[in-house]
Fold this sequence. Notes:
The chain is an all-alpha fold. The protein is built from 15 helices and no strands. The chain has two domains: 3-103, Up-down Bundle (Receptor-associated Protein), CATH 1.20.81; 171-335, Receptor-associated Protein. It has helices at residues 12-28, 32-41, 46-62, 66-73, 79-91, 94-132, 135-141, 143-170, 175-187, 191-212, 217-227, 231-245, 250-254, 263-275, 278-334.
Amino acid sequence: MFHLVAHATLSLNQQHGLFTGLAQVVRSGVPLSAGLSHVQEGIGSRHLAESLGRMSRAITDRGLSLAQCFSTFMPGLPPLFLALIEQGETGGSLEYSLQEIVSIIETSQARRRQLISAMAYPCTVFLLSIFLLPIPLAFSSGWPAYILAVLPWILLLGGGIIYGLTLWPRTHLNDAPALTRDRMLVQMPFIGRLFRKIVLARFARALGAMTRSGFPMDRALELASISAGNRYLRIQMLMTKEAVSRGACLSDELSRLPGLFPPSFISMVKTGEASGQLDETLSSLGSLYETESQVALDTLTKMLGPLIGVLVLGMIGYRIISFYMARFAVLDGLL
């Protein structure tokens, strides 16, 4: 769910340091070519430092813009970032565009930290239970039986890790698996509500930034749908973008997608269109859904802990009872 703001060779922390430094350079009025050299000195990545050096020389020697340099020397940068930088340079608001990029990265960093923190306890309990629950089997049937009980789980975990590191990233490059996966994520009965809130928060925040920067609505919808990180939403936005470019109201077109956009979202967009403050309304919606997704994730985390604890305790109790019942059966046979 976090690939939208991840460069092929840059971590989120490196991206944050890069754009924070660039925003400070623009704010201080230092020329970009010299400012890139200053940012280069504080970057720990050799690859990134070399790219910044090439960008500084390209600005000085060839007169390239910052957006052209990023698209040439860092082609893996998200399209939303490139568009914001280009629009900022054209409209004279580059500092604001860079600050908006920093805000997007910080939001992604916070959500990633929250997700890791939320899953740490359940994953730890699950891993411990894999190795602890079969221990009574070792006393009753020997250690070979214990190994046979644990081995399938180890193979399953290993397969999941291999899939996550190799096959899962490739689904981003293949339309059909990505579309199926993303549609399932937002349409699942319970957990789908959480994913849908996250997707809507990204979409609203990006669309608000685009409209505030002066992008045409059809272009803003295209970039916002990419930034949402959901291929299903992106496909649905194709028809919406075409209709809006022909003069249709955004709220009317979003109402044709009830599976993605709830009535409250559409109502607020309609209010923003009527009041002429669509950009502020979308930014408020982004903040609202970010808060709701955080609350939903916290609730899910609080529910997972007790549920997994009860499940593990029940399995331990079952193992202990089974162990002693087998012993009692042996004693009854002897008597």
